[in-house]
Amino acid sequence: MENLDSILNALKEMHTGAVEAVDDSFGDTVVTIAKPHLLDALTLLKKQGFDLLLDIAGVDNLKRESRERFEIVYMLYSVATDMRLRVKAHVPEDDLNLPSVTGLWRSANWGEREAYDMFGFNFEGHPNLTRILCHHEFVGHALRKDYPTLKGQWSTGPSDLTPDLDRDK
Amino acid sequence: MGVKITPGTKHESGIITTKIDEVLRWGRKNSLWPLPFGTACCAIEFMGAVSSPFDISRFGAEIVRFSPRQSDLMLVAGTINYKIGPILRRIYDQMCEPKYVISMGACACSGGFYDNYAAIQGIDQIVPVDVFIPGCPPRPDAIFSAIVKLQEKIDKEPQLKLRHLKREHGES
User: Residue A64 domain-assigned?
Assistant: First the structure.
């Protein structure tokens, strides 16, 4: 596998304007990708050897008016070369659609469900985009900065975790 | 406290005289079968209480059952959030009368330090609680104290009258 610089160059050559910024954060490289090129960039990074998707995180920039409302962050890791890379994209409030990367990393399945549950991103192509932490009757997205922190919501009953096995219906 | 048969007395014939209420009371309070509803670290502490260094069987409550149909003491050990709340209520409803609930630890009693969108601020909002145990987590001694408290409570209750009927009629 090549080193990180050549991978970043490959990202820059992929589409003009695809790479918006390359920063360093506590020793990890953070590359910001323009949202339309996100899937292409992540596909390329998977091919370049980032075989582990550690986590998907959301960021709400409600009070930072210089930025778009949301950010999505993918934490990538390469088992063979012990390299880490953080991939970031800005997500405007009026367009929460994002490509699903479940086809690249299977761990994205639950990661994307969590990001949907907490921030309301819509991952297009996800096989089962339902809430994973909050209950199925929860309204709103709990980690958005405009969600009242102490507002609990009662649930009338547990959701169907195994609809195929439920013989009562 | 118990019903004793002393050799050399008339009880040797196998006949004792008592009241039904007394016998039920004696049996129920000394054979509480706990159902651990463990969701967090308090459940680990409960395992310690059951194990031989502390030995919960000294109080007759060592037969831990994981089925609500075979137990009469629900021991809620851990944080209960809005997602598991209905499940807790359903399991409580599946237990046979008479049934008792011990709320173990700060989280189950009041939400603990979790005051947010997810955590229920005390399980008494879902099920009736007989004894609350403070602590984070409580030591096994505190669990035994709660069991003794519950035994004292059972000792004062009329046993032939079902608890749920009492509740419906609003008697204490």
Answer: yes
Contact B120 A134 (CB under 8 A): no
Domain interval for residue A94:
2-124
Tally of structural domains, chain A = 1
Give tens-digit pLDDT for B4-22: 555 565 555 667 778 888 8
Summary mean pLDDT of chain A: 88
Indicate whether A88 belongs to any domain. yes
A154 within domain boundaries: no
Count, residues in chain B: 172
Query: Which ipTM score applies to this complex?
Result: 0.78
Partner-chain contact B117 A135, CB within 8 Å: no
User: Residue A120: how many CB atoms within 10 A of its CB?
Assistant: 16
pLDDT digits (tens, 9 = 90+) for A88-145: 999 999 999 999 999 999 999 999 999 999 999 999 999 888 889 998 889 999 999 9
Q: Is residue A163 part of a domain?
A: no
- pLDDT band for position A164 (cuts 50, 70, 90): low
In whole angstroms, what is the distance from residue A76 CA to residue A28 CA? 10
Among the partner-chain residues A135, A138, A150, the one whose CB lies closest to the CB of B116 is: A150
Cα–Cα dist B32/B99, whole Å: 9
Residue A57: CATH number of its domain: 3.30.460.80
B117–A156: do the CB atoms touch at under 8 Å? no
Residues in B closer than 8 angstroms to A144, CB to CB, are: none
Round to whole Å and give the CA distance between A166 and B11. Answer: 56
- Report how far residue A148's alpha carbon sits from residue A129's, in angstroms, rounded to the nearest whole number: 24
